[in-house]
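Run log // design_07
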């Protein structure tokens, strides 16, 4: 029988108000591995009420005390890292080597970073003349609502929870229904680390019900969301009913640019990492591969040869390089993109199908396309699967024009031995993160977010904790009476 998991409200695992549960599947086997409480608006009400009580206690703890709790959470996660990695792999489908080597360590580092940040929040004093003493202080919002995606469930939870708690807020958070298990496990860990009741609440369920209730709830003062651009628009509309501020990290269609002076073997590794890691289910995926015309053909040939050798299969195997996409619906979506691209004239150099060596599981072959019109769907829309379209460019100006020919602006990669060129392109590309001669490097100390329809606001870094504070100006007259 699959495990049964309740939601987490007021430091207790509790059933939903309806008592119903929904199935959660292992994407590598398609089997139901858990049943999770299906939340409703009433459950969001309960969570907000618990968060309001928790906030009163949490906000009055000293920054040092809040930092100590976050640090204990980091140490507890570190001690149980293998179990969290195994659960993430089982629930999301990512190879265990990636969960152990990236997701869990990044979550630990994020908790540690914000454990230290609690004592680094500063206000300002402003000279408004001798008749007035004026200062500005940062204060928490109170109860914040957060909605996280299914591609990096635990890591995205840490990105949102850690800065919000560090700033003194209480949290009501909804995981994606495909991947709720590691966040629920983290909630229990937080309780054991000494987080007061109500400071962290996890309401499981579906976006049209739980997500909508969170974004519209009058008791929630701010929203942070990571997910699709379309859903982001709905969230902004819902939040506008009570004029909540919103931080959005949305989709991407990032350009990964390679000039003819690169070392091809090293460049190939960066291109593969940029689009096939996590089965391409990355907002920052370098899914537009821009190749100088002198190296285009050889680069595509080498990348296709590598893609054909990638080990696809059981994500629990340390040797597996490519796991499944998260669900049947996502697999059908990815293959639909490829099918329509072929119909529009694109050439499938390799891949483009459900992996044939799997009797079950939502596996998609690593796919490379050429002959793609840059205005076509496959070049402009986020696929969120192991699919890359390769394009030729003649010179730096054309590379820049192609890179910016997108409604998105999350990230970009520039690969060249010409440092001056790298600086020019880094300044000219309209994206929130630029990598030069690397790709997908992330640090909790560095702000992360996008331009254009990739969202607004920033997570991580000092900006990440600032997002969870609001400014209060205080004027004090030195005169008595």
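design_07 sequence
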């Amino acid at each position: 029988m699959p495990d049964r998991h309740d939601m987490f409200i007021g430091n207790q695992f509790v059933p939903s108000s309806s008592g119903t549960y929904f199935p959660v599947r292992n994407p590598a086997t398609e089997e139901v591995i858990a049943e999770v409480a299906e939340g409703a608006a009433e459950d969001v009400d309960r969570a907000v009420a618990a968060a309001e009580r928790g906030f009163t206690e949490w906000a009055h703890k000293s920054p040092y005390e809040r930092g100590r709790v976050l640090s204990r959470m980091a140490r507890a996660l570190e001690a149980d890292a293998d179990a969290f990695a195994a659960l993430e792999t089982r629930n999301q489908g990512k190879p265990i080597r990636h969960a152990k080597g990236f997701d869990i360590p990044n979550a630990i580092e994020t908790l540690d970073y914000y454990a230290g940040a609690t004592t680094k929040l500063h206000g300002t004093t402003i000279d408004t003349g001798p008749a007035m003493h004026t200062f500005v202080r940062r204060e928490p919002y109170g109860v914040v609502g957060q909605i996280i995606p299914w591609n990096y469930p635990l890591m995205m939870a840490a990105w949102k929870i850690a800065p919000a708690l560090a700033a003194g807020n209480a949290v009501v958070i909804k995981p994606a229904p495909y991947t709720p298990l590691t966040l629920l496990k983290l909630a229990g860990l937080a309780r054991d680390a000494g987080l007061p009741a109500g400071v962290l609440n996890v309401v499981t369920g579906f976006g049209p019900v739980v997500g909508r209730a969170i974004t519209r709830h009058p008791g929630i003062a701010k929203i942070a969301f990571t997910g699709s651009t379309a859903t982001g628009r709905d969230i902004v509309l819902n939040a506008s009913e009570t004029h909540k501020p919103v931080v959005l990290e949305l989709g991407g269609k990032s350009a990964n640019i390679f000039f003819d002076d690169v070392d091809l073997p090293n460049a190939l590794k960066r291109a593969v990492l940029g689009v096939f890691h996590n089965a391409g289910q990355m907002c920052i995926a370098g899914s537009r591969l821009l190749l100088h015309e002198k190296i285009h053909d050889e680069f595509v040939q080498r990348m296709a040869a590598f893609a054909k050798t990638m080990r696809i299969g059981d994500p629990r195997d340390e040797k597996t390089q490519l796991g499944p996409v998260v669900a049947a619906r996502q697999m059908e979506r990815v293959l639909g993109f490829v099918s329509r691209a072929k119909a529009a004239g694109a050439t499938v150099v390799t891949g483009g199908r459900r992996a044939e060596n799997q009797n079950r599981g939502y596996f998609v072959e690593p796919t490379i396309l050429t002959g793609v019109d840059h205005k076509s769907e496959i070049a402009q829309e986020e696929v969120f699967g192991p699919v890359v379209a390769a394009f030729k460019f003649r010179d730096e100006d054309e590379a820049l024009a192609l890179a910016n020919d997108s409604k998105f602006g999350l990230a970009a990669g520039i690969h060249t031995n010409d440092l001056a060129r790298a600086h020019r392109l880094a300044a000219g590309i309209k994206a929130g993160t630029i990598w030069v001669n690397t790709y997908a490097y992330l640090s909790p100390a560095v702000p992360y977010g996008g331009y254009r329809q990739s969202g607004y606001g920033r997570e991580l870094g000092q900006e990440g904790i600032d997002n969870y504070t609001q400014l209060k100006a205080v004027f004090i007259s030195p005169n008595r009476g």
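The first strand starts at residue 3 and ends at 5.
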